[in-house]
Write a structure and sequence with these properties.
Layout (H helix, E strand, L loop, with lengths): L26 H17 L7 H7 L4 H12 L3 H17 L6 H7 L5 H12 L3 H16 L1
Helix pairs in contact: 2-3, 5-6
Length: 143
Amino acid sequence: MRRHRNSGAGFVFGEYERDLPRVPLTPLETDFRIRRALELMETGLGSRLTAVQIAHEVGLSRSHFHRLFKTATQRSFRQRLLEMRLQRACELLADLRLSVKEVGYQVGFATAPAFCRAFTKGLGESPSRWRRQHVGIRNSTNG
């Protein structure tokens, strides 16, 4: 896509839409929509969430939601969702009754290898190793 040479700020083509001036939302509108999006993400961690679904739920277009979310959280939707999933995974790994595979499914990963890759990339160690190091410490101090 190319910008027309004489287009100025009022005419846009394709990917250049982002050059248009934006009417900012009030802080109250931003806070409400982002808080609601984060709540929806938190409650839906085990499902296959998409930015389109969340944007629809908070009454924004996909592109406007992405811009607003990144501005408010300093993270993209996918980055924040992954962070939330990994944080919840750490909480679940403390429950020794759950296998690593079950934890991965509960936080929205389709396969155990996908969960292990994301966990290792995000936290620097495998879920099993993280569990041994962190849960083992808690257990040894309790008894």
